[in-house]
Specification:
Layout: E1 5-6, E2 19-22, H1 36-47, E3 51-56, H2 62-72, E4 79-84, H3 85-94, E5 107-111, H4 117-122, E6 128-129, E7 139-142, H5 155-163, E8 168-170, E9 176-178, E10 183-185, H6 187-196, E11 201-203, H7 209-218, E12 227-231, H8 234-243, E13 247-251, H9 266-279, E14 287-289
Parallel strand pairs: 1-14, 2-3, 2-12, 3-4, 5-6, 5-7, 7-8, 8-11, 12-13, 13-14
Antiparallel strand pairs: 9-10
């Protein structure tokens, strides 16, 4: 098993990369405010001539995510592209890269967090959002969930979809999302439920390839090894980057914070990185740093 390289700043490894693919939550912000070190790191990357792509597991389009980033106060001038899993799906539908049952999905039944979300997502496309499941439906579009959704809340809907053998397209594979005082179920967990019931799920978002492929389409002349993924999730960011040949950096100050608490020295940090990677059945990340810097 390879030995991850511990670094204090991305500046130490920049010469090997052209594109930095940054995760958001746990890397750039905590859900409410951006990290000061992240802002400075983004400015440093920009000054060094590196392109920053932000890749997020969100079922919504990229422009909505960009507005959220701007409100948080991140340095917008440093960002080349924002790509969400919802944006990658929208592009694949409109450019005929995705097919279900041999055809491009055009009639979708949505499951979402807000009633307006599906219409906003479909804007500018030929997709029709339908309010019923019937033979004219191509797939279920699972892009979000209302808070406090239970794991069996959509069983009746799923049973109906299974009668027509409809696949489910999940544009946000996250299993849980943080709130101020708790965690709530996210779309990925509901998609798992559909699979358990016998349904087919088409996954968009990290660790699955379509989001990373959307990043590469903007710079097709570059080898995958010239892209560096920076994220705080071994399951999503690191595994996903490895799957497409990107190099990877784990930020230890995100969701794995507790795993690295009170470790004495670099040897213990490296041993923990290897152990966690083994638990996720992936190689360790190429690099690791405590926080984005």
């Amino acid at each position: 098993m390879s030995n991850p390289i511990l670094i204090d700043s991305l500046e130490e490894v920049l010469e090997s990369f052209d594109i930095l693919v940054l995760d958001q939550f746990g890397v750039l912000h905590n859900g409410s405010i951006c990290y000061a070190t992240a802002c400075e790191a983004m400015k440093m990357l920009h000054a060094r001539g590196k392109e920053i792509f932000i890749l997020s597991n969100s079922g919504k389009r990229a422009d909505l995510n960009l507005k959220r980033i701007e409100k948080m106060g991140l340095p917008m001038e440093t960002i080349s592209r924002v790509i969400t899993s919802g944006e990658a799906l929208w592009q694949d539908v409109n450019e005929s890269r995705i097919r279900v049952a041999g055809r491009i999905p055009k009639h979708l039944y949505p499951i979402c967090g807000h009633p307006d979300d599906p219409t906003l997502w479909a804007s500018g496309s030929n997709v029709q959002i339908t309010d019923r499941i019937d033979p004219s439906c191509d797939a279920i579009l699972l892009m979000g969930l209302p808070d406090n959704t239970g794991d069996k809340a959509y069983d009746a809907t799923f049973q109906q979809a299974l009668e027509f053998d409809l696949p489910l397209i999940c544009s946000n594979p996250d299993k849980t999302s943080p709130r101020a005082d708790r965690f709530v179920m996210s779309p990925g967990a509901l998609a798992d439920r559909y699979e358990e019931m016998g349904g087919e799920v088409i996954w968009y978002g990290k660790p699955h390839a379509p989001g990373f492929q959307a990043v590469m389409r903007y710079r097709p002349e570059l080898a995958p090894s010239r892209f560096l993924v920076v994220g705080d999730s071994l399951e999503h960011d690191i595994a996903g980057g490895q799957n497409v040949g990107f190099k990877t950096t784990l930020v230890r100050g995100g969701i794995h914070t507790n795993d690295f608490a009170n470790l004495a020295g670099n040897d213990q940090i490296k041993a923990t990185l290897r152990s966690l990677a083994e638990q996720h059945r992936i190689p360790p990340p190429d690099f690791s740093l405590k926080i984005l810097a």
